[in-house]
Amino acid sequence: MRRPLLATLAAAVLTLAACGTADTPATPAASGGVTPIKLQLQWFYQAQFAGYIAAVDRGFYSEQGLDVQLLEGGVDIVPQTVLAQGKADYAVAWVPKALASREQGAKITDVGQIFARSGTYQVAWKNSGIAGPADFKGKKVGNWGFGNEFELFAGMTKAGLDPGRDVTLVQQQFDMQALLKKEIDAAQAMSYNEYAQLLEAKNPATGKLYTADDFTVIDWKTNGSAMLQDAVWANTEKLGDPAYQQQTVKFLAGTIKGWAYCRDNPEQCRDMVVAKGSKLGKSHQLWQMNEVNKLIWPSKAGIGLIDEADWKQTVDLSMTTKNQTGDTVLTKQPEGVAYTNDYVRKALDQAKAAGVDVTGAGFKPSTVTLSEGGA
Amino acid sequence: MRRVLSVLAAVVVFVALWEGYKAVGDPDGTVLFGTRVLPRADDLSMPHVWDMLRRLGRPELTGGRPVWQVVLGACLFTLGITVAGFAAGAVVGLLLAVAMQRFRLVERGLLPYVILSQTVPLVALAPLIAGWSGNLSFGPYPWQDWMTVAVIAAYLSFFPVAVGMLRGLQSPQASGVELMRSYAAGWWRTLIKLRLPAALPYLFPALRLAGAAAVVGAVVGEISTGTRGGIGRLVIEYSREATSDPAKVYTAMLGAALLGLVVAALVSLLELPLMRHRRRVPVVTM
């Protein structure tokens, strides 16, 4: 009668379910012309995913015959794993982390590189004397860990520092309190999220909000240690199926239209995100929308097209950058089809034919004024 | 009445401690040999109690509902999940206890695994359950996200019930069991007439532990799987705003604490009709 732990657990699950399991078919047949699709996001609804939300709300997916359901992320939800397990048809994930999952056996392929640029900053106080990664020597440097830290480590390595010895590494929380309280000298921040949180906080000395003049921002894009971030990943095995191929092109076409819409109508997209029940305030979401647009537009070759040089830089950094425990993201070159431009090219052609501006050559970011608490 | 007063007194003492520490504590915290031994007392780390209360009254977002409504709604949602998880966990725990009492072999084989089950970290378990359960369905009704959270709550709450109940079922003295045997009472009758009544004083403390565990499971499960609507999700969403609105984080935590109190009260209500004139067993442990 010895039962392993899993059996006990399964018994509990079954007791609750009290019925059989119904496996969802991998690619549900298009019934009535509408194909249901699940897209796994990396986190809760926020403007980082505005293009997908807009494509759902404005009907860009349904005009492609797709009924897209967005799945929110959570602390322990790993989008590329959800995709590899077949619980979602596509997933949004950062390239280095997804490649690491690939090396662990997840069969996924990057089919659309939505964010062409990285939004990761390292932020320090202006008066701290930190002007570049070389100045981190002997300082307390905050980072998020869990694979989000490699651009920082690559930047420090490039500046000639040994991240394991020359700096004190501090695990950072979701908020920026550690920097504000000066517990750390430099904090990791996304341009579209944590950096805005700093500018929404009140400076107790002046009674006014902090401004960009209070901080030094080290942008990894200008340091040559940036890695590719938000991309649309598809299931590699299913990509052998012509139906899934077509569906991928349609999905990308709708996605492209959604992001183009958010470039031209940031306020409307902000409102859609807020209406989705995001707990972040309106000015914060508009800031995020604007910053995310900057990571996409202008897109020289067209949104979603994977740039070979950027890809190579991401893979090279993933293989050579060691974190404090001496690990690299990848131990070898990605095998098989790690990315393909086949589907996004077709989607871009389709969007262009429909009159969508897929390069956004004339895109000018706006200036967003943040209010206290992002309200 | 005295109980209500003592609860109120506890709240007053807590507020006094919080504000008292804020008044005398070092805003930068006390650091001994490079380790912080006392927390920072500044407004960013420890907002004033009245700031939290005021925050409860103000809207969550400009033009939105006031925070107290949002927090209360989230508490109700999580309460539902907790009750479902608690009920499922209690049933599983009871069945396991009875099976372990009935068959010595089951006890020897299963009990170590029951204990082992509680050493699996929740963060590892939550995505697994979310992964498996996605394919389950109740006939035409598909699996819902909240059910994943309820399973996590059940997983934590079955344990104290199983262990406490087993202890209770084994508590009758040999003379009692032998008396039943002399009446030619079978196992079932012995269970109903002797073992179950004898187990009650052990069951209720176990249920209280299970109630607390179910709350923890529900809140952590929500955080882990990102299930929308509950207090756990609210804690993590508000904590992202800790940089600019520290009082808001504590409103969600107040909600979580309130939820724990409500569940504890509900469990002790269960006790009332059954526990009159019975002796109490203070602690149930292994």
Number of strands of chain A: 10
CATH superfamily of the largest domain in chain B: MetI-like
Indicate how many domains the architecture of chain A comprises.
2
CATH superfamily of the largest domain in chain A: Periplasmic binding protein-like II
Number of helices of chain A: 12
**How many structural domains can be distinguished in the coordinates of chain B?**
2
DSSP strand tally of chain B: 4
CATH architecture classification of the largest domain in chain B: Orthogonal Bundle
Low-confidence stretches of chain B: none
Listing every helix as H and every strand as E from the N terminus to the C terminus, the arrangement of chain A reads HEHEHEHEEEHEHEHEEHHHHH
Summing up helix and strand content along with how strands pair, one would put the structural category of chain A as alpha/beta
Task: Give the strand order, joined by hyphens, for the main sheet of chain A.
Answer: 2-1-3-10-4
Q: Rough shape of chain A? A: globular
The low-confidence parts of chain A are 1-31
Find the CATH topology of the largest domain in chain A.
D-Maltodextrin-Binding Protein, domain 2
| CATH architecture tag of the largest domain in chain A | 3-Layer(aba) Sandwich
* Helix content bin of chain B: over 70%
Using the coordinates shown, work out and report the CATH topology of the largest domain in chain B.
MetI-like fold
How many whole angstroms does the radius of gyration of chain B measure?
A: 23 Å
Helix proportion range of chain A: 25-40%
Strand content of chain B: under 5%
